[in-house]
Specification:
Elements lengths: L1 E2 L8 E8 L2 H12 L2 E6 L5 E7 L2 E8 L2 H5 L5 E7 L3 H6 L7 E9 L3 E7 L5 E7 L7 E2 L5 E7 L3 H12 L2 E6 L5 E7 L2 E7 L9 E7 L3 H10 L3 E9 L2 E7 L5 E7 L6
Parallel strand pairs: 2-5, 6-9, 11-14, 15-18
Antiparallel strand pairs: 1-10, 2-6, 3-4, 4-5, 7-8, 8-9, 11-15, 12-13, 13-14, 16-17, 17-18
């Protein structure tokens, strides 16, 4: 288990699901990941539902903005990057080639945030923590273990993240003919970036969850009304699958490879 009490600027720190059926999504993910929930009423009216593993926050589920639903925007998982000063970081967005979708605002005593798009059109949240640091546990079953920028224009997108939050792109060979981009804060790998693997997929931030068994989780997803876009497959880092929940949001599973015994 990796518990967290803070995040360095630029590190993916939180994820939430904006969905067309909050109750349906809650039921689905509770059975896939074993999540328990704590409801957080918001001043505007909707309830922001914290998902927990072992009593620690790992993600949230919220109702989709009615305007987005009306225009056909599908339910989706959002990634948030930690920042020390959200107003200062947001002020760098335009000069770096991005756009500000939501100007900085306070989320009660939890923190302060904005929502922006990089030059390739991928949306990401910027989160300045107060009482809510983000995910309190990562890298265990049911919790987040990786965030990945999927973009067809890395030459425009990657310098944006370095300018706004200090994320540095570091190419890494993953085998013959395949290079992957790691995203670093200092010498720490905090995320990655790759090109779209399927036609028609808009640029976005991918979310990955740890599972004890990718095959068992994949089977549950099908039984619960979800679907698999990529069946479980072995990769050097572990066994992976790509899934879609019953409302249409895409997410990824990772059963980490067994570590060699010392």
């Amino acid at each position: 288990m990796t518990t967290k009490t803070s995040y360095e600027q630029g590190t993916p720190c939180w994820i939430d699901l904006q969905t067309s059926d909050q109750d349906g999504a809650r039921a689905f993910y509770s059975q896939v990941f074993g999540w328990e929930y704590v409801e957080q009423p918001m001043p505007q009216g909707p309830v922001y539902v914290m998902a927990q593993v072992g009593g620690r926050n790992v993600a949230a589920i919220a109702p989709q903005n009615p305007e987005q639903a009306a225009t056909g925007v599908p339910p989706m998982w959002n990634t948030y990057l930690a920042v020390d000063d959200v107003d200062a970081a947001t002020a760098r967005v335009a000069e770096a080639g991005g756009t500000v979708a939501v100007e900085p605002f306070d989320v009660m005593d939890a923190g302060r945030m904005s929502f922006v798009a990089d030059p390739s059109g991928a949306f990401v949240g910027l989160w300045q923590a107060k009482e809510h640091i983000g995910a309190e546990v990562v890298n265990e079953p049911g919790a987040l273990n990786w965030n990945e920028l999927v973009t067809d224009d890395p030459d425009a997108a990657l310098p944006f993240y370095e300018a706004v939050v200090g994320l540095k792109a570091v190419p890494v060979s993953m085998g013959p003919g395949y290079e992957y981009t790691m995203l670093h804060i200092g010498d720490q790998r905090v995320g990655g970036s790759t090109s779209p693997q399927m036609a028609g997929v808009p640029n976005h931030w991918n979310v990955w969850f740890t599972v004890a068994s990718a095959d068992e989780a994949a089977a549950r997803i099908g039984q619960l009304g979800g679907s698999l876009l990529v069946e479980p497959i072995d990769m050097p880092v572990g066994r992976m699958a790509v899934a879609r929940d019953p409302q249409g949001a895409v997410f990824n599973l990772m059963q980490p490879a067994a570590q060699p015994q010392s």
